[in-house]
Amino acid sequence: MNHGPRPGSSPVLCRGASFCDVGVKRNHNEDTVLWMPEVPFAAVMDGMGGQSTGYIPANLVRHSLSQFWEQHPLDRWPPGALRQGRPLQLAFQLAHLRICMEIAQSRGTLRGQSSTAVALLLVPGGACIAHAGDSRAYRLRGGRIQLLTEDHSLINHCIKHQPALTPEQLAQLPKNVITRVLGMDTKDESWMADLRFEPLEPGDRFLLCSDGLNRMLPDREIEAIWAGESNLQRLGARLVARANEAGGDDNIGLVLVDEGDQAGGLF
Length: 267
Prior knowledge:
- By secondary structure, this protein is an alpha+beta fold.
- The protein has a single domain (15-149, 180-265), classed as Phosphatase 2c, domain 1, CATH 3.60.40.
- The protein has helices at 55-71, 79-83, 86-105, 154-161, 167-171, 211-214, 219-227, 232-245, and strands at 15-21, 31-36, 41-48, 114-123, 126-132, 136-141, 144-147, 194-199, 205-209, 252-258.
- The strands form two sheets. The protein has a five-stranded antiparallel β-sheet with strand order 1-10-9-6-7.
- Strand 2 (31-36) and strand 3 (41-48) form a beta hairpin.
- Helix 1 packs across helix 3.
- The chain is globular, with a radius of gyration of 18 Å.
- The chain starts with 14 loop residues before the first strand and ends in a 9-residue tail after the last strand.
């Protein structure tokens, strides 16, 4: 699923690799991934709400995001707008509207379908991250992992706003309730993704993944595997294999991005 640079595009000094695995317990894949080194841009989507057709909204988001960068190249955006994440927010809003339009035109056959999404855009001097749902973005810096997103889930909402809840009380909450996704039925016309800008340091590495990875492997195990492998193809294969060995309860979508040897050498 890797995409090479388009003719005439300027190469950038970053590497990436994408992986999408059905897992052990599913017979269909509702995750999809996107890696566009010519932007450079990465995204992971996890479709939801259909009877084996969650791949439809996930692929709608993938196509919408890919089309966005083809129509609105990075070099057309002012540096300030890039750092503020404006193109990412617009790209997510358009993808959200596209799912909503497809649902409306389907006469109910796609009702209730939606998709999580997490995306990474490398810009001069930094990384912009956008997400909706429980697909995640991690950074590895100095051998230590850091989660850069907050899950939009009922459990995470309760932990954040009711910190006194006991583990026993949290265990009684449904684990699959997502509170914000692309395509969600909402009256709020100003639907927004969460945005974050992170300055780059030499050697920074990024992982975007669906919950099929992080629900199977604790962060410390992901960190140990990640810190011990520099080859992105082998690293992704190891992460997928370990998630399947741990149960493989869900599809596993992930994209790995390595900014290169020097943060200033990206552009």
